[in-house]
Amino acid sequence: MTELEIRHFHLFAGLGGGAAGFNRGEARVGNLQARFRCLGGVDVDPAAMRDFERLAGVPGTVLDLFDREQYRDFHGVEPPADWREATPADIQRAAGAERPNIVFLSAPCKGFSGLLSETKSRTGKYQALNRLTLRGVWLMLEAWADDPPELVLFENVPRLATRGRHLLDQISELLRAYGYAVAETTHDCGELGGLGQSRKRFLRGARHIEKGPPPPYEPVKP
Q1: pTM of the model
Q2: How would residue 114 be classed by pLDDT, with cut points 50, 70 and 90?
Q3: Which of 12, 55, 142, 219 is the Cys-Cys partner for 16 at CB 3.0 to 4.6 Å?
């Protein structure tokens, strides 16, 4: 058996459930055995990053990914004097200056959720939060533009496919411009995990065409 390290990184990382899942993942093809290693994660919530470190086993980075206009629209005030917009270099530092093979992101979903009324979802505050999805993907792509991750996975609530369609289309165009093939699908966490519940999620996968020619494998449904 030949061991192959697969490095993963997390945007909008939350408390680290996704990172912990990757760390526990197993993959084997022929005589290749994959070992997953987390490079880090980014989130605006310090408490979430403390949990992330405990669950993922590596430090997380507290970082606000809003641009200045989004900050104003969401908070209703100008940012403090010591605030600055995040840059691709910040994303690189959050990954310990290493390049991930996989980037997983689950951007804030409040503006897309069915728990929020259609009227409220259209307000400037929640539209700013929604636009963070596009900005996060752009920051990540620019961070590793010279050596792109092989796979980008984007998970969110199912209603993103309707309320956020204009943003999804922009994200697809952006990913394709950086050399990715894009697929849009859904999955059920309860079904894949054999749980006693149904929890459907939106999933978009992006595979870098030059670096990962074969279509990726999908989990076999139980």
Answers
A1: 0.86
A2: low
A3: 55
